[in-house]
Amino acid sequence: MAELARRLPIPERLLPARPVLLVLVAACIFLTVGSSISTLFAQLTVAGVASGVVFGSLGLALVLIYRATEVINFAQGEMAMACVYFAYQLMLWGLSYWAAFFSTLAIAFVFGVVIQQVVIRPVQHRSVIAVVIVTVGLFILIDGLVEWKWGANQRFMPAPFGNQVYRLGGVPVARQQIGTIVIVLVCVLALWAFFRFTKVGLGMRAGALRPEAARLVGVRTNALLAVGWGLAAVLGAVAGLMTEPSQYVLSPTLMQPVLLYAFAAAVLGGLESPGGALVGGIALGVFLNLIGQYWTFVGSVLQLPVAFAALLLVLLVKPTGLFGHRSVRKV
Amino acid sequence: MTALLELNEVHARYGPVKALHGISLSVGEGEIAAVLGANGAGKTTTLRAISNTVEREGEVLLAGNALRGGPESVARLGVAHVPEGRGTFAELTVWENLRLGAYTRSGSLRDDFTRIGTYFPWLQERKHQQAGTLSGGEQQMLALARAFMQRPRLLLLDEPSLGLAPLLVTEVFRIIKELNESEGVTVLVVEQNAHIALQLAQAVYVLEVGRVALSGPSAELREHESIRRSYLGY
Amino acid sequence: MKRGLAGYVAVAACAVFFALLPFTLSDYHRGIAAQVALYLIAILGLNVLVGYTGQISIGHSAFMAIGGYTTALMSHYHHTNLVATLPLAFAITFVCGVLLGLPALRLSGVYLALATFALAVSVPQLPLKFSKFTGGSAGISANRIVGNTWLYEVAWSAAAVAFVFTWLLLRGRIGRAFRAVRDSEVAATSSGVTLAIYKTLAFGVSAALAGVAGSLFVLATNGFAQPNEFSVTLSLKILIGAAVAGLGSLWGVVIGAAFIALLPTISASAPLIGSTHGQDVVFGAFVILVMLLLPNGVAGLLLRLSRLRARA
């Protein structure tokens, strides 16, 4: 493992423990073999990956905020949903899909920064539970505001990728699935590069690790927390915009199930690890798709409980998630 | 010699507990000053009062201007504070730690990095090592190197000898001296190890329960009876 | 000692107030007042867990569902006396709470939050799967409808019993052990508190109270137990109530319960926004405002006031 870490440009701490890595490799082999045997299996796997990267991207947003403040932002999904409505409104005003897409990302950033500054910052120093409650309040508030402005009925949005279906090695794959996977991965890569190569990104990492020490070298941790919320909102917006086409319609409850799975993905990945959230999301997406199809007792009704039961099982074996490392906390 | 740093009647508290009861001291431009004292005398708090990481009252002046704002603003005014426990980021690489040192300024870091190499030759080849895997002495050196990357006017060092083997202590202090002489950095160092601090510093302040009990040029204090008895043990 | 006396007086005054209150209320308002009582019980339960042992739970809607279904099913199939189903719900959810508390021993913080979240999401799915027995998404009826006056009396009596029960529980040795667990697990273990027992006990008691609240919840909705009534939102509502009341203290629970039971009703008639979205907007905004203005909830405010008075 140490040797692998030296050869790759990844610090060792970002790689999961050896047994976890083995399980992941085994899962990959299982999926590849299954896909080569059955076209349906392959189709389900690709669809699972496509929904999984969306869970992962919203999960990544949760991880970003969790790393900086040890708080789960319950409003993350609703913020994303509101952003999709912003995009919808921009398109109503005549913008093309992609113009609206990128404007929405900019709006999302500002949205996140404003929320952090106005309602999160004042309670930040009190307790984790206070911040959590505020995010729950935000959840309800945003929900209400969106319903007030746009109504609870379903809306229709132009589709970004069309309905084309490609055949890859005999397996039909929707263009929309490929588009979703590519867009999310590009965003995640951009984010990774931001954290690794830019000064602000480095400052944010330092601030998340040791706020006091970071301030001593001149990092404006408070301002960077707001930037973190902005980036999380952008990731959420991407997740939201990529969820919408797979649901075909837009409604205020768009992101509620996604938030659930994103939360699960983030925890599965270990909460501290951005890569873990993505892997966790993909694993969850594929698992849900396969189990819904092949285990008829579960069907669609028990999909959720079974997914969570599996997650709990993972947590009981490895209480800090797949990629998590048990950290020694100060007493 | 003009004073770069001046503290006038500085009080500090941690919540209800008062830690400093009116400290006054001044450090001249280009000077090395040392703060000595027993555990709990307020040495660390004095440094924290300067970088404003503790509730404080009183006047803290850098080159005649009051130091205001949080620690991040103080850092931007050219004060590098290496806190107790070194303040290096164990999870980041050596190079990332150095980049953080230069956080407050723009421009290329290559020149500074080469210059650092003359003081810490081993840093070059271990650029991509995780800082947490360095030895204690190496981490202390990294902390110094990081502070140097900041190109500070004033360097605040909190117990650089803590937890180091005697040979390494000498090495660390040699480098501090060198940084002071060839780079013109003013240094305020807090130390338990009075012996080495008295050799290094030009001016010395001795604290006792949050007050300056004694101060003067180190040559003078080396001769001082009570200092010798309480701190040097001979 | 003086503070203890003030406490007794306050409790007695509350008891008299709530005993006399129904005579001044309309039937409709008696129903709403009964809701305050059932939320009070749920908040008490959550407070035992979050406020006293520092373990978070977003799964209390699941325990309420279990309690609620206990009442509905027992009444539906066995015509059990409705009041008798309350202690039954207490016992069953206590066991469920202990069972969840055992795996929860291995989890902490956010991981525990997720585990309980999972429970909250999963439990309402179960009636859908076993719909022959439980009525599926349409729900199941207790086959008896209770009047608002009856409901008021039963709910507030249960609330009084629950309050005294938790108060007695928390003021003694067990309460001290709970707080020790919250403040420092390491210190608690080294001073001889058996972590595992107290943590699971807290889970059990907390769940049991939620179960009773769930029974009353079903009775308050015309005796109908429906899966979608027990969604995660209900858990979040109770969490909000507990935070408004103030965690780690029992004195704010009435206000916390009133907050979540009454605010939606009051704000439904809010000017400008009106309608159902208005409820959400007002509720959400109030939650945020309360957290910004009252960091320790109503209990913290009461404490501050009593300190001010003591100084004057």
Give a short synopsis of this structure.
Chain A has helices at residues 2-7, 18-37, 39-69, 76-92, 97-124, 128-150, 175-197, 199-209, 211-216, 221-247, 256-269, 274-294, 303-317; strands spanning 165-168, 171-174. Chain A has 331 residues and is mainly α. Chain A has one domain (38-152, 163-317): Orthogonal Bundle (ABC transporter involved in vitamin B12 uptake, BtuC), CATH 1.10.3470.
List the helices and strands and how they pair.
The complex is a heterotrimer of chains A (331), B (234) and C (312).
Chain A: H1 2-7, H2 18-37, H3 39-69, H4 76-92, H5 97-124, H6 128-150, E1 165-168, E2 171-174, H7 175-197, H8 199-209, H9 211-216, H10 221-247, H11 256-269, H12 274-294, H13 303-317
Antiparallel strand pairs in A: 1-2
Helix pairs in contact in A: 2-3, 3-7, 3-10, 3-11, 3-12, 4-5, 4-6, 4-10, 5-6, 5-10, 7-8, 7-10, 8-10, 11-12
Chain B: E1 3-14, E2 17-28, E3 32-37, H1 43-51, E4 55-62, E5 65-66, H2 71-76, E6 79-82, H3 94-101, H4 110-119, H5 136-149, E7 154-158, H6 166-183, E8 186-191, H7 194-200, E9 203-208, E10 211-217, H8 218-223, H9 225-232
Parallel strand pairs in B: 3-8, 3-9, 6-7, 7-8
Antiparallel strand pairs in B: 1-2, 1-4, 4-5, 9-10
Chain C: H1 2-20, H2 27-53, H3 60-78, H4 82-104, H5 109-122, H6 126-129, H7 131-134, E1 140-141, H8 148-171, H9 173-183, H10 185-190, H11 195-220, E2 224-225, H12 232-245, H13 253-267, H14 275-293, H15 297-311
Antiparallel strand pairs in C: 1-2
Helix pairs in contact in C: 2-8, 2-11, 2-12, 2-13, 3-4, 3-5, 3-11, 4-11, 8-11, 9-11, 12-13, 12-15, 13-14
